[in-house]
């Protein structure tokens, strides 16, 4: 295994069966505390809206809550959907976060709405072309966070001159070109949209333009991981993830539920195919299997940092999966 690969996690504060938004947030905090104890580099939470069983819509507030309950792990957004917001407001919010928690806050940025079109209209009001302004919005955000903005008429306080690392998020080749052009780290969402992963990673490295902060490209890949003491048990646990994705595909969204003996959609070929496509970057098994598959995956794509998301219903089993993943990467 490449010893230089960093290990991180993505969490959506997902509601589990029998729980609610408060318990989802509490579970995310406990996960962050456990990941910190395990030596994970960072935990990110993601902006989603109008999704009943996800509690990360007010992303910057959740980041503050997690950061205040931990002491060393980096906490950030995976991501803030920038077209939903004014760059100045995000500069102020994350400048404030980084002022309270120095050298611990990350700002991952995406261009998707993180929701359906009707909700996007409610969020963006008269700015439905925000996605097209994404490159300019990033540059505006960089300007507000820079010391060089001191002579401007519009300034961000706190924010100006505060260290807030930016990351470009994406699930297509469009974002890989943008991250390369801006000389910023790039995080690919292979945990739900893996189709263009290999192409996007190649484009990013080939077209990367060195910047002051990043003389070399830095590629993060987010994948699903379900690790257990035996591969058979990991396969069983993974049915919670697959059933959750099936509820997304069929628009019958549900909380994360206990694993069923077989996926609930088994025999429905269209659903099987759709879920299989979404979870094709999912690593399921015991430590030797996870190590073998991830070693090949990381080396093939020249991944600098692996970010794992782990949809396991039982909290203890979920934390155990994160422990086994770290063991697999370090063995």
TrEMBL record:
GO terms for molecular function: oxidoreductase activity, acting on paired donors, with incorporation or reduction of molecular oxygen. InterPro entries: Bact_Lucif_Oxidored, CmoO-like, Luciferase-like_dom, Luciferase-like_sf. One of its GO terms (cellular component) is cytosol. Residues 17-235 form the Luciferase-like domain. To bacterial alkanal monooxygenase alpha and beta chains. Gene3D superfamilies: Luciferase-like domain. This is Luciferase-like monooxygenase.
């Amino acid at each position: 295994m490449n010893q230089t690969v960093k290990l991180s996690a993505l969490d959506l504060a997902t509601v589990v069966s029998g729980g609610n938004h408060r318990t989802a947030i509490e579970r995310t905090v406990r996960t962050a505390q456990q990941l910190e104890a395990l030596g994970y580099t960072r935990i990110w939470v993601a902006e989603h809206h109008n999704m009943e069983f996800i509690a990360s819509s007010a992303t910057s507030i959740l980041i503050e809550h997690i950061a205040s309950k931990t002491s060393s792990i980096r906490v950030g957004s995976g991501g803030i959907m920038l077209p939903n917001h004014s760059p100045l407001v995000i500069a102020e919010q994350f400048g404030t976060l980084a002022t309270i928690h120095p050298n611990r806050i990350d700002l991952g940025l995406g261009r998707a709405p993180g929701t359906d079109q009707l909700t996007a209209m409610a969020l963006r009001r008269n700015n439905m072309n925000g996605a097209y302004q994404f490159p300019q919005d990033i540059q505006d955000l960089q300007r507000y966070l820079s010391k060089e903005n001191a002579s401007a008429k519009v300034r961000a306080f706190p924010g100006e001159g505060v260290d807030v690392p930016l990351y470009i998020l994406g699930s297509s080749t469009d974002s890989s070109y943008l991250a390369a052009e801006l000389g910023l780290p790039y995080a690919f969402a292979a945990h739900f949209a893996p189709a263009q992963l290999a192409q996007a990673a190649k484009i990013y490295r080939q077209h990367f333009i060195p910047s002051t902060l990043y003389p070399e490209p830095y590629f993060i890949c987010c994948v699903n991981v379900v690790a257990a003491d035996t591969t058979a048990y990991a396969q069983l646990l993974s049915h919670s993830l697959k059933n959750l994705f099936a509820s997304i595909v069929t628009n019958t969204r549900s909380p994360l539920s206990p694993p069923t003996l077989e996926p609930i959609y088994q025999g429905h070929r269209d659903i099987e195919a759709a879920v299989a496509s979404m979870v094709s970057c999912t690593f399921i098994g015991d430590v030797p299997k996870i190590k073998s598959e991830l070693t090949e995956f990381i080396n093939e794509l020249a991944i600098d940092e692996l970010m794992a998301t782990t949809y396991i219903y039982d909290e203890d089993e979920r934390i155990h999966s994160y422990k086994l993943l770290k063991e697999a990467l370090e063995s």
